[in-house]
Amino acid sequence: MLPSPGAGPTTGHDLTEAVLRPARGYHAFEACVEQLAATIRLGVYPLGSTLPSERELSERLKVSRSTLREAMAALREAGLVETRRGRGGGTVVTLKPRTPSARAAARITEGKRQDWLDSLVFRRIVEPGAASLAARATLDEGALAQLDEAHEDVARARRPAEHRQADSRFHLTIAALTGSHRMVEAVTSVQATLHEMLLAIPVLEANIHHSDRQHASLVRAIRRGNHDRARAVMEEHCDDTAALLRGLLG
Amino acid sequence: MLPSPGAGPTTGHDLTEAVLRPARGYHAFEACVEQLAATIRLGVYPLGSTLPSERELSERLKVSRSTLREAMAALREAGLVETRRGRGGGTVVTLKPRTPSARAAARITEGKRQDWLDSLVFRRIVEPGAASLAARATLDEGALAQLDEAHEDVARARRPAEHRQADSRFHLTIAALTGSHRMVEAVTSVQATLHEMLLAIPVLEANIHHSDRQHASLVRAIRRGNHDRARAVMEEHCDDTAALLRGLLG
DNA sequence: GGGTAAAGGTCTGAGTTCATACCAATTCGC
DNA sequence: GCGAATTGGTATGAACTCAGACCTTTACCC
Fold it and tell me: How far in angstroms lies nucleotide D4's C1' from the CA of residue B90?
């Protein structure tokens, strides 16, 4: 029912509570730090690789170079990157991927816990959707090679920390195969949160083999264009992780 | 394969092109205008309803009151709202919902066209996912009433412009039923883009009846907790709209 | 070796955004 | 009617962000 004109203040739509969210995260500076740190921690830029130049990055992130430089300084100070000047110089990643269980669970606020649970719910929709779309898409040789490479990386990784990064890259690669910017953004956000959870919650990745089998099934389904199967496998994959994490979050 | 340390500049990960996106949209001011305008146009605040006070809105949107007020001034100037001072005053919506076909297609840039197509792809994943989640959730009486009301609104709406707003509210309501912030945000974004498309592309909503039957099926499936059916119906619903729009976009 | 190109480092002035007061108008409750 | 509460309107100074120009360092090329 439409509220009558002039009705009381804030006609009781529950929708409005859900829809009106922060228009913009923090400052540009913090947004840059977060995004770059996430990109590095997720292994998009692995140890030893060189980030794009400051000028290019500032253009990509749509912030001024000054602001980007402040963000870089923060990353440098935090020990994620190192910078060399001059031609051929640039900023290289020095962060060794951390072992998931290495850090004790920081104080988890109730807000954070809610956000994490939310993230698991959203992931269960978005990632299977990405898998389904990727399976539907007609993939050229380059794309298939990219998928295989990402899969081999994760299958080959031995140490937990490296496995974690390769896993993120694998999931992001699938999202990228869909060709949808929004999909990539959604999966990036979800993976970043997932990564945060895995760092904060000491959980033994006991079932890496299990996970790898699912990855292999996923790649097969995508290559065959079997989108229902791709979605189903990814759903199971998400459910397995989520069950583990939810158990530890209460 | 992990790139060797010190390898050339920007080791050729295609992922990075997809992942590094603008860290922050334009200015806070513009973000507010866009979000509020979208909220109003989508009918979350219908004609005649009163927006929350400036102080509350600025807190919700996480911007200063000054900035919010500039956004409000823009909305006022654009004729979307009117403002009265004093206790019991506030800002009321004066925008009559526009008839979709009323405006000629503005010059559609290639970038915008791509974004629109992207949005349709993402919607096809997100909204069926929301429907599925909503069907899984245990809904209390209030939630069910909210769903029914949104459905009745859209079924009752006669004029195209009102139907459009009610339709947006219906879809947003389903998203809200999932209880997931990210889901609401995703559906809001997708619906805003959809709304923009429908305004720019003169398309006769010839099949309102067809659409309404799908809505009814959707509500039934959600109430019964039949999540597979809910997802399937929503997928069909999205596909129908998308086919129409894609045809007109080339 | 010298020139050029490419990268980070520095500076500056204008524009935005913010937090925090305080003012003005209007309504509600007694 | 009158005071208190609520709402929009105004003002100010600090902090942040931006765009652009210019400097310094370093590697590559001839």
Answer: 19
